[in-house]
Design a protein that fits this description.
Blueprint lengths: L21 H9 L10 H4 L4 E6 L5 E8 L2 H20 L9 E9 L7 E7 L4 E9 L2 H13 L6 E4 L2 E5 L4 E2 H7 L5 H21 L9 E7 L4 E7 L23 H10 L2 H21 L1 H11 L7 H15 L10 H17 L6
Antiparallel strand pairs: 1-2, 2-3, 3-4, 4-5, 5-7, 6-7, 8-9, 9-10
Helix pairs in contact: 6-7, 6-8, 8-11, 9-11, 10-11
Length: about 350
């Protein structure tokens, strides 16, 4: 990144969840993202007590482990194992016999106040996690776009007004920067390259608030050195804020260590190359899912995902940034996202991209 890192461009205020429209719900049903289960988010709120959850360094994680009455726990445990079967085995409940719920944690911050369920396989003591959240249309659009235009896939389901998501494995970005950046130069260059590409993925689809604790780093050992993949884990700020810089991870001070790696190891020409590489990959993914993206953007353009003042601000800032007036006719965040896709990819790839 060649530009100087600026001050944090934080959210203007706490984001509210937006309801799932009938159009979005029909889309999710069509693509088998809806399930019908008895348990809802509100059921998990019936806990009787809670205690702080500390990490291995004895630091408060701001999560709280919750406890239920014996009767409630039996019902909730059974339903949570059914959810896990839907996430991992297409609903085949035969896997439930050797599974048990090890812990349920409640997040005291964030927009969707998620519950994190830790489930354990009694045959080998291996464990996994998944999340129960309040359904938010912004987050669902963020999840869909992640699956369609990024190199990452994740399972999620809508159960009435409850959102169910699988766990995204990786090292939290802030922990990664503290513990893993003092590596050999080869790995540092690869990490800097991945951050450039992640920055582009976020900006093209306008996914905001990618501070270091809102993404994880997946490390894969390779023949020489390691390969790195940055994965977003928070999709609440999908096309909500009005500030253009909010959608560029390079402008968050939390991410400065990765920015400085890029400044140290990459010339501007290399940064431009990696940006265009990522744009080309996104264009290829669009070609493979064009009809589904067309359906998604048609619904997204009609849904309320932000407020008029934020929409107007983002239109003006993107017009100025791209040196165009292509965003002036947009009337919703969905239309802005679609226009940003088309404008960036057409400019770099020198061919028409229509969604």
């Amino acid at each position: 990144m060649t530009e100087q890192v600026r001050d944090n461009d934080l959210p203007s205020k706490k984001k509210i969840p937006f309801p799932v429209s009938s159009g979005l719900r029909r889309y999710l049903e069509k693509y088998e993202r809806c399930i019908k289960l008895d348990i809802q988010y509100e059921d998990l709120m019936r806990y009787t007590e809670s205690i702080p959850l500390y990490n291995m360094d004895n630091q408060d994680t701001l999560w709280r482990t919750v406890f239920y009455s014996e009767q409630d726990y039996r019902e909730i445990s059974r339903d949570l194992k059914t959810i896990y079967a839907h996430l991992k085995t297409s609903g085949n409940v035969k896997v439930m016999d050797h599974l048990s719920i090890s812990r349920i944690d409640f997040c005291t911050f964030g927009n969707t106040h998620p519950f994190r369920v830790r489930i354990i396989n009694r045959l080998n003591d291996n464990y996994d996690h998944f999340y129960i959240k309040v359904a938010d249309a912004s987050r669902i659009y963020g999840l869909e776009l992640e699956n369609l235009i990024s190199p990452n896939q994740l399972d999620y389901f809508l159960n009435k007004e409850t959102l169910i998501e699988e766990h995204i494995a990786g090292i939290p970005g802030d922990d990664f920067m503290k513990k893993y950046l003092n590596d050999n130069v080869f790995n540092q260059i690869r990490m800097a390259k991945e951050f450039v590409k992640f920055n582009e993925r976020c900006f093209v689809r306008l996914l905001g608030d990618m501070r270091s604790y809102n993404f994880v780093v997946d490390i894969t050992p390779d023949i020489e050195g390691s390969q790195f993949r940055i994965r977003a884990i928070d999709f609440d700020q999908q096309s909500y804020e009005g500030r253009k810089n909010f959608y560029l991870p390079q402008y968050f001070k939390d991410n400065n260590p990765l920015i400085f790696l890029g400044i140290e190891h990459m010339k501007p020409e290399a940064v431009t190359q990696y940006q265009m590489e990522e744009h080309s990959l996104i264009a290829g993914r669009i070609a493979n899912s064009r009809q589904r993206l067309h359906e998604l953007f048609k619904i997204m353009a009609q849904d309320k995902l932000s407020f008029p003042d934020k929409i107007e601000q983002l239109k003006k800032e993107l017009n100025h940034y791209h040196k165009t007036d292509a965003f002036s006719a947009c009337t919703s965040m969905g239309e802005i996202v679609r226009t940003n896709f088309e404008f960036i990819l057409e400019k770099d790839l020198k061919k028409e991209v229509r969604l």
